[in-house]
């Protein structure tokens, strides 16, 4: 079982949407038995909350089931998840500090867009203070990034549906 954790700041916009999109792609590929994914935030701002209303609307538009409550990244996540993917530089920096503090200094943390050659090092922009259109933008970014991530992981682990 390959465990994947998507991480943003609040865990109500980008990372729960990434989780929903990835679950849908895994299902479409018939690989539900091989993957388990979850999402979390670096902050404690929205623990226990449903995703942002705009995230819910975006998921509904693309018919993606969304079952998540906000939670904060914790120590055991570094042990339990093989792939931890940060949405932006700020999340990446926080995760790289946390992993050292929690005794997982060697753990590699990835940036979500690093799996698309043309977008390496780029962020999935924080849509929180913008409008509804920002959610369409992050959907498109995540859709592309997650296709590449899934293809990369399938190749790396020699997974065939
Ligand atoms: P997310 O977006 O990190 O994609 O979930 C945000 C959600 C909440 C806040 C910032 C970003 N906030 O400041 O409360």
TrEMBL record:
The lineage of its organism: Bacteria, Pseudomonadati, Bacteroidota, Cytophagia, Cytophagales. GO terms for molecular function: acid phosphatase activity; non-membrane spanning protein tyrosine phosphatase activity. Belongs to the low molecular weight phosphotyrosine protein phosphatase family. Its EC number is 3.1.3.48. Residues 2-152 form the Phosphotyrosine protein phosphatase I domain. Keywords: Cytoplasm, Hydrolase, Protein phosphatase. GO terms for cellular component: cytoplasm. This is protein-tyrosine-phosphatase. The keyword Transcription regulation does not apply. It comes from Algoriphagus chordae. The active site is at 8 (nucleophile), 14, 126 (proton donor). The keyword Glycoprotein does not apply. It is found in: Cytoplasm.
